[in-house]
Protein 1
Amino acid sequence: MPQITLNDLSLKDYNLTERASSLKKIYFRAMPEICIERPRLITRFSLDNALFDKERISILDKARMYRYVLENRTPIVHHTNSYEKGMRPFAFKEGPPFAGSTTSKFKGVPLYPEFAIALTIWPELWTISKRARNPFHITESEVEELNYKIFPRWIEHNILEIARKRCFEENWKCYGRKKYAPEIKLFQQLVFFIASKAGCISHTIPDFSKAINLGLRGIIDEAKARETKASDSSQGEFYKAISEVLEGIITYSRNLAKKAEEMADKERDPNLKKELLDIAEVNRQVPEFPARTFREALTTVWICWTAIHLENPNIGLSLGRLDQVLYDLYRQDIDNGTIDIQHAIELICCLWLKIGDHVPTMPDAGEQLFGGTGSNQAITIGGVDKDGNDAVNDLTYVMLRATELMKLRDPNPNARYYPGINSGDYLRQLCAVNINTGAIPAIHNDKAVIKALTSKGETIEQARDYGVIGCVEPGSNGRFYGHSAAILLNLTSALELTLFNGRHRHTGLDVVMSKETGDPTTFTSLEEFKAAFERQTCWLVEQATNLNNLLGRVHQDFYPTPILSAFFEGPMDKGKDLIQGGATINSSGAAIIGLADVADSLSAIQKVVFEERAISFADLLGALEKNFEGYEALQRRLMNPDKTPKYGNEDPVADANVSWIIELLDGAFGEKKNYRGGHYRVGYWTMTNHAGFGRLMQATPNGRKARENFTSGITPVSGVTPYLTKALNSVAKQPARCLSSGVALNLKYTPEHGEAHKMLDNFLASVEGYFDDADGERDGGMEIQFIIADHNTLAHAADHPEKYPELLVRVSGYTAYFKDLNPQMQKEIIDRTEYRLSTGKMLPFDPFPLPKKGVDL
Amino acid sequence: MTSRPKRTLLRSIPYLFSDRAGLFIAKLRSKRLSEELCGKVTDRFLELLLSGMHLAFCLSKGYRKNIKDFEGRYLFRTADRLVATAATFKEGDMEVHEEAIEDWNVRITFKDAAALMAFIFSRDQDILDSLLANDVEVDGNLNYVYKFGFMARDLGHRLGLP
């Protein structure tokens, strides 16, 4: 049976149904609400079972806790109320065909007090519903319950504080004196790196195929059979834990069915009554038993997804290759007439809305530094299958159409494209949807990505079956436990430590933070400077990986993940939880912030200080210290691509410096082992951190002034790359084997409405050219993502957010609503190099003013 | 700070009259703190905040609920290390010490009173500015800071302070 039977791949004749349209309106109207159901239940269970007193929490303890939560959480078939802007309540009746929810609220903010972030909102509980940016609704009684009953229990019991205590105790044993966890201190100084394990692991893709095809009962039977043959007690405990959590999920689904039946009993409208009875029937079948229809398969995914989020914080958990996992039942139902394409699109639209029914916790300071993020739940479509065959199917296009119609932040859509195997028509459609939505989906080059993954030891079959995690990180679907965002490393801090001989202007030039690598004013060549930079970078990598491993070991003792382990390849065979190394593939990921700024700084030092000797190193440092005040001519020169080499212009010096850094980091991280026995992988995607870190850092040698944004992902610096083709080529020549944790190349194209067809042709050509491996001379670009909006529109949206509620943009990896971003991040998006495709040239660079102090920050 | 007998006397007020009456008295006694919060931040900010909290713990059963079963040891010190103040919470009571203490749960080192106020009350972008300027340094368990931050704001909430 051919996988493509559609006559029109755009599916333009199919639009939003009345139901999907109405649900979308409600979704955009609703404000997020803090949900305290999960913390209430886990706190109660932990107290009743003395878990707070334990030195280690076993997987069985955790499994029993999650079963308790699943069985006792409120079964909500449909939400009927929420709060709109100004925190005014509103009611509605429409509901999707999927019962259940991630939280007890329509658009909930779940709290995970086991991690560092939940308690950060404690001081703001009385004001969080009134804060200027991204407020969360919370009731007075909820504030009181959190303050008196829930948060106090977790003061000493979250992952970060347990790690700090351990570190302190170990130092006490080793040194006999108080030493307060130096790596944690570095992390809390904000400018060096972010250790995400304090907040979650999450970033991974579960495998839904077993749940769909066998049902959870089938997995329980397998676990029970394995339990009888377990080689030791820990294996036996693992299998018992799997059964516990899956029984909990089954009960939750049954509770939903029961609730739907009760509601149906009272419902007078025959259509609504039938809808409720249908829901009940579906939820009594799945996820306990194998899905028989497309809708049941979607329900299996959805119910399991809510359970996975109950265990794992809602940051970066991703759904993987849904067009592959769900295709057989889709095909069956289309062929036997159970559903038609319009109905399938509506089901997908409703599922997308359900997937976006929660947002991550974020305190006010976090909003100002890194705000605007969703949950970054990536979905992946297209590409090739394990055997290397074209995997694009009708459902790929159905999902693409649903994505185009809904234009949502979550899920974060990513499309795979294998040049020469996937059709040109498919790529053209991906480009068309980007133009129509202005931002989605991101497009990944299978050929380069598969090369990157196999270079890290994955088999070709595993690599071909990759899905996208969180922002843009590739990971083999359902078998790769990689915590791709474990470390967010501010590379510009390594540069800073090199420039100031182990000191950092943020922490004070009187304190040696790392190691003294020499006063750069005494260096006589760039090689000396690069050697010092290498040592500082390795020091930073050492600190970040040490802390990640420390936090990982705390996770191993306190945060086993039986639910996620049940939906993964590896743990069942090994009888081992994911956190103990149960997955087939284990690794940790580091994302690098500031690549282009650091590379351009090296190029500037090379050219201006050592080659042309236009300025001494001492004068350069003086200019940096004065933020280029009094050194305006120098700054102009450093910013001018005609006078100073800049990455993104096919300049051999500049591009070679980028490659050198990429190789350096791949080597430095690659040699480090993580706590699960895997190795570290490196990626270049920055989320909003390039804006956040930018605010913390002083002027840099590439001419960037203090507090200004760094450049996102693997993208060249804004305003210094006049030609699109050259910019794309500079990125495409970087070695894929060193980019195995993904990249984000952010481009901005001017909408060319008058010549839409021509724009699409040029758009397509730009992607094809970027992905081209030039007959093996290079790897070709790995990923590309777009914003299709001009400077004026974005500047207007910054001033009038109320007029652009649905304006979608790609940040650096994930998708966001422009209005939700903080002003610094909005500026970064507005300032991104904008190309007109018809000319291939950059539009005049017109930097948006930095937000003024006191204005909406 | 108040002596133990005086504290016992103050604690009887919400029982004899009402929590509202206790808060009313606390508000009258917190005029200086209110002025500080309005922007006239002086070096006495921390002292006024701690004494305001101490008084409110005595005069309001509702506010005192914040420290029921709570144990915490806070050390505040200036960046030049010349001034140190500590607040300890134990068995439903608060004590303020005009000197450094050992075995703190959290140590907050601040450049000046304005930075400390911004950090605790984190209004608008103040907390970000204090981070940018590295004006406040925290050692130890941050959750104690969050707890303290809530109590400080809860004081403002209950007393109707700006």
Note: Chain A touches chain B at residues 116, 119-120, 122-127, 132, 147-148, 151-152, 154-156, 158, 160-161, 164, 180, 185, 188, 190, 364-365, 368-369, 506-508, 695-696, 707, 853-854, 857 (CB under 8 Å).
Protein 2
Amino acid sequence: MSLKEENRLTERLIRGDSGAFREFVETYKRKVYGLAYELTKDHADAEDVSQVAFMKVHKSLGTFQKDASLNSWLYRIVVNAAIDHIRKRPFFPADKTSALPGRFADDGIRPVMDRSGDPQREAESALMQKKIESALDQISEREKTVFLLRHYHDLNLKEIAVALGISLGSVKSYLFRSIKKIQKELGVSQTPFEPGG
Amino acid sequence: MGECRKMKGLFLASLYGELDMDRKESLKRHLAGCRECSEEYEKMAQTLMTMSKKAAPDPGQQFWDGYWDKLELRMKKDGLFETLEAKTQKSPRVRFGFFPRWAYGAAGAVAILAVGILIGRLFFSRPVVLSRPASTGTPSILPASSAEDLALRTSRYFERSKVILLALVNFDPGKKDVDGLHLPRQREVSNELVKEASALKGDLKKAKQRQLEKLVGDLEVILMQIANLKSEVDLPTVEIIKAGVERRDLLFKISLSEMRQTDKKSRGQGPHARKSGPIAPTASII
């Protein structure tokens, strides 16, 4: 969605256009679910978190500042909803085997990957997914959230700072650290450095 | 060393395209002359490229199709689904907070003028005779000319939407050239139709044509998805939109609406019938 379209939708949401909220959900449901899934690693949890996030958006529309970024605001709500959800769930959940990376079949979720029909390419693609998941598992939750928001959800560094309520320097630091750790995990050699912010 | 440290601080912004032209140029110059930084930058870029291959989790089309219904149900259960209009009325700051003080004065003057005109019309002019639809006998809230105009607008809206939907539904990437979609034109028309939808829905609502209003609303969602398609044809999204068209039976509903109009004409009610009332019988089919 372009910035112009986002602004138009924001205005309609604030104005109280009855169709705007549904349009908003249809536009953002995949992104919201995607982030919730990455953070919870469970389909049922991700669905619940995404619904809770949209409900919070609906409840808080009256407090939304017109000049604020809809993206940052929405992602802040999703991240907070996911954190709340993770805090509430049992530490050793009996039925959370689907929460383990690579166990997509258990909850019916399959990553959209190579479906070319070429077994070798499909196997390579599956291996690559496993490697990427494993690399993401090596970084802290904070680093991972920053990385996911920047790399897969296209929020710029300032928007991430607003969404997570942290400084721009911290965002840069978390992102740099996460990339270095991922780099190491993927087998690319590392040089010691960290930006000042 | 200090220069390297300073330049490494720009790596992230550069890799994610957030660097302004000046700093981009100075980083480019530095990388051209510093092998260590250049290698470091390359490795980071390579890492990010690998991570871009990560597949998005996909619970399947069925999940996406039913997403809104489940959310709506949950919101209703939680008592959250009051209308957004009611919500914003509760929060006057939202509605009025964005305007300067003089705007309230101007709005007040306009309101007084409007009340004056209304009183004038009520007490000093002939009453407006409202038309009735020929077939249903239900009182219409629109004058005949507005009803005719609304019927024509709705019919034209469906006709234009149908052309767009047919092109998309009949599109087969295996048989036809991707350019066969003429996407730029379809996006442009879809955009126009999306813009028109709000006003049309409002008028249909006033005319109590709820089912037609809903059909326009459903079309609006699909047309918006088409308008948002990227310039390169995004085949997975095209498939999703096609599934949406089929699931909502949009083409079937439009055809029924057209058949009903034709039927009315053949029974001699044609344009005259349309002049005498809104298109309520069509709505009852849909």
Note: Strands of chain B lie at 57-58.
